Amino acid sequence: MDKSTLVEYIRKGEPRAIARAISLVEEDNDYSYELIREIYPYTGKAHIIGITGPPGVGKSTMIGILSKMLSEHGKKVSILAVDASSPFSGGTLLGNRIRMQEILSKYGIYMRSVANRGFTGGLSRSTWNIVKVLDASGSDYIIIETVGAGQSDIDIVYLADTVIVTLAPGLGDSIQAIKSGMMEIGDIFVINKMDREGSFFALKDIMDNVYEHNGWNPRVVGTNSLKGEGYDKLLEAIDEHRKYSEASGNKKEIRYKEEIRLAISREIEKKVNGAFGELISAEDIARDMRMKIDPSTVARRLFHSSNVAEKEVNF
Amino acid sequence: MYLEAGKNLSSSRPIKVLLAKPAIDGHDRGIFVLARALRDAGMDVIYAGLLPTPEQVVDIAISEDVDVIGLSLLNGAHMTAFKKVVDLLHEKGIDDIAVVGGGIIPDDDKPLLEKIGITGNYGPGTPLSVIIDHIRKRGEEARRKKEM
């Protein structure tokens, strides 16, 4: 399939074309760069919802229910779930799909699982571009499930229009609720598993600790995925936040800026990785190590030598 | 094998495998062992969960753009369920996803499965390395077809 046909099929929402395009984007090469450049004009319509939170709080089940409800309202939903790669083998078990497969089949919702490939921050390096493919395919909503990792996995705040932080009772006390990191990025907080003991204390701890941020007062919603309770409120909160963020508009600008910053650092990293063997010889490495020169000093020496600054990393 | 942390973070994409039991069969211990072994061999692995229909298996394979579908059954329905998956792939004109089988498969059935393109068909006791090598080989074939 040539590029313009691929773009055409993506815009028609054809799952095979979307799937193949996402694989190409994951490879992150010159071809994927060209592809993104071609589809970029067709992006910007979708509302991007990021769902983050620790492992096991029920993010996948929540996404299943949410996408079902949005589909019933006549909206086109796409889902992207990021899972962690093994730091040792690089392999991944992509397990988020199981919890929503029935809903996906029934409503014809496109979902894709990707590995984070060692990228920290809760997303994968190519997530930004994958979202563009889903956006160009005509999605009204794109739901992103981040790697369920921890407090500092907050890159989703730069990518999503609405960030939902999902928690469950028994994960911590009121000190956890005021810690930095994940607790600061939520536009909506969900306490899932409200059937559990201590759920109202968890709800109260979060309610006590959210505060207005850029003119938005984060909503706190309790849900019970077993019975589907609280989901109407959650959908309402998403809708309110969508209206708020569309009116304020500055989030798109922040995202554009962040994407440029990421793209630059990616270019630098590629150049450095590509040229590493030429920058420093094995003998030099052995000599520096023998002389006990610390790695940062070696790096600075290399970076400031005309070789790197002007020739290898050319900008 | 000693694996060095952080060594495999390149942007090149690993072989992607979908593991599925496309009929009524609740015996999933074996497929979990295999899923983990494939992950440790550096592949991206998706498990379709219990009781997917052949239609669902093919839908997942397409959405996730996998290179290999690994089918397993221990209940004797392989001749119909495995065949259904292959037929659905043919119907949709897909020839760049390899299909590999396994489970309790009588020797007499193996040539028949091979004939419709389902290779491997390993039974209990097969060393994991044999299955991994086979899946990698078929995955690489599929990947080459995708790139054409």
UniProtKB/TrEMBL annotation, chain A:
* InterPro entries, per database record: AAA+_ATPase, GTPase/Isobutyryl-CoA_mutase, GTPase_ArgK, P-loop_NTPase
GO MF: GTP binding; GTPase activity; kinase activity
Its keywords, alphabetically, are: Chaperone, GTP-binding, Hydrolase, Kinase, Nucleotide-binding, Transferase
The domain of life for this entry's organism is Archaea
Q: Which CDD domains does this entry report, sorted A to Z?
A: MMAA-like (cd03114)
Which positions fall inside the AAA+ ATPase domain?
A: 45-189
Q: What Pfam families does its record include? A: MeaB
Matching entries from NCBIfam families are given as: lao
Q: Which family does it belong to?
A: Belongs to the SIMIBI class G3E GTPase family. ArgK/MeaB subfamily.
Protein name, per record: Guanylate kinase
Q: Which organism is it from?
A: Thermoplasma volcanium (strain ATCC 51530 / DSM 4299 / JCM 9571 / NBRC 15438 / GSS1)
